[in-house]
Amino acid sequence: MSGFTTTIVHSDRRDPIEHGSLQKPIHATVAYGYEDVQDLADVFQGKSSGYSYGRQVNPTVSALESKIDRMEGGIATVCFATGMAAIGTLLFALLRRGDHFVSSSFLFGNTNSLFQSFSVHGVDASFVDATDVEAVAGAIREETKLVFVETIANPRTQVAALREIGELCRERELIYVVDNTMTSPYLFQPADVGASLIVNSLTKYIGGHGNALGGAITETGLYNWELFDNIYDTYRGADPKKWGITQIRKKGLRDFGGALGAEAAHHIGIGSETLALRLERQCANAKTVTKFLENHEKVDAVYYPGLESHPEHARAKELFRHPGALFSFELAEDVDTFDYLNRLEVVIKSSNLGDNRTLAIPVAQTIYFEMGRERRASMGIKESLVRISVGIEDVDDLIEDFDRGFG
Ligand SMILES: *Cc1c(COP(=O)(O)O)cnc(C)c1O
Questions:
Q1: Which residues line ligand 1 (CB under 6 A)?
Q2: Is 383 helix (H, G, I), strand (E, B) or coil?
Q3: Ligand 1 centroid distance, CA of 34 (Å)
Q4: What confidence tens digit (pLDDT) does each residue in 189-232 have?
Q5: Whole-angstrom Cα distance, residue 278 to residue 186?
Q6: What is the model's pLDDT at position 378?
Q7: What's the 183 CA to ligand 1 centre distance in angstroms?
């Protein structure tokens, strides 16, 4: 197996590409025609691996699926229109009314909202402090089918007890879903801690340029799907390791329809070639900027797993190649957060993360506004918290800008 970046940039060539084109072409087609109708029937019956209809498969999307599979060291990957489509489809395809799952309470805001909706439909979640494996263990019930965690939480950067939860899931025969968006497979491969299914929002670091939305689910092959009652007979094929991901592709992607477009897959595939290069720079920038802010008298707190003051600093060091490129901080009370942000000239006031540009957003007034002050307080989100997604700019320009904010 060659190195991470070599593998990505040569991934498309491993399958025959039309006319020797170095990039997998954009296949702007919905349907696929066959000379012999038997070939068409074979595709529909799963006897051959050809293409049936654009909602389920597209050659450009398949090339991206192979690429992500290689990055994560998985055995199969399915792509979706967005990260949220991947997460929603995963639960929809695998869980039934009466089932229960345990989730980290430190979640991407829309994932949190989505899980609340599932409870209305009879699939209940318990939210726990996932930095503590005992909290996860304590929430498991008879009806519990899976555990869902993120690697580094956004915006407060808590690091889940990823290895310990993996061991717990193996012992209790639970599906272990890890959302790897914040770390990406360059910083961390969840298969190393026993994850069964890996979620990535391709919109963030993997695509990296803020120009396309996408999501993916990767099967690691580590869960024994023979233990899982919710697999329909049709999907109990020859290889039990693939039962879950097959059901996700059919009952989830095909029937729910959150398919990734070929053009977006192309953008994400190109972006992914520089994932390692970008993250090396972004993480180095994040380390320098957080040190600057932590030492500034007008800053009350900085949350970044790369800082020794971070409660999970040692865990992040053990698990991740680098401690990520996202951090959050609170200004001293006598500094107005909005005035500070408005003085920044390089850093852009914007949502999203994983972009090449450094982005800043005041959390309570935007992405966590809908949940209200009380819920925010319970999650440790102060009204003055600012989230920063660090880009690839020259670090001196970033330091100058973060200093400029103080006026
Ligand atoms: C952004 C994000 C998602 C959702 O991804 P979209 O592509 O925006 O739908 C899910 N999980 C995490 C951790 C994210 O940061």
A1: 82-84, 108, 111, 150, 154, 179, 181-182, 201, 203-204, 213, 215
A2: coil
A3: 38
A4: 999 999 999 999 999 999 999 999 999 999 999 999 999 999 99
A5: 10
A6: 81
A7: 12
Q: Are residues 352 and 223 in the same domain?
A: no
Given the DSSP bridges, would you call strands 197-201 and 215-219 parallel, antiparallel or unpaired? antiparallel
Asked whether the predicted pLDDT for residue 1 surpasses 80, the reply is no
Residue 177 has pLDDT above 80, yes or no: yes
Can you name the residues that pair with 302 across neighbouring β-strands?
329
368 and 228 within one domain = no
Q: Is the pLDDT of residue 269 over 70?
A: yes
pTM: predicted TM-score of the whole model, two decimal places: 0.97
Per the DSSP assignment, residues forming a β-bridge with 91 are none
333 CA distance to ligand 1 centroid (A)? 31
Closest ligand 1 atom to 202 CA: 7
- Phi and psi of 308, rounded to 5°? -65, -25
pLDDT in tens, 290-311: 999 999 999 999 999 999 999 9
CATH at residue 343: 3.90.1150.10
Residue 126 CA to residue 100 CA, distance in Å, equals: 8
What Å distances lie between residue 37 and 40, 42, 56, 154, 323, CA to CA? 5, 9, 19, 51, 53
Sign of CA dihedral 351, 354, 360, 364: positive
Does residue 112 register a pLDDT over 70?
yes
Rounded to the nearest 10°, the torsion over CA 68, 192, 288, 107 is 80
> Do 318 and 250 reside in the same domain of the chain?
no
* Residue 42 parent element (H or E): helix 37-44
CA of 215 to the centre of ligand 1 (A): 8
Based on the domain organization, do 320 and 247 belong to the same domain? Answer: no
pLDDT at 226 (0 to 100) = 97
- String of DSSP letters for 177-228: EEE-TTTHHHH--GGGGT-SEEEEETTTTTT-SSS---EEEEE-S-S-GGG-
DSSP 240-257: GGGHHHHHIIIIIIIHH-
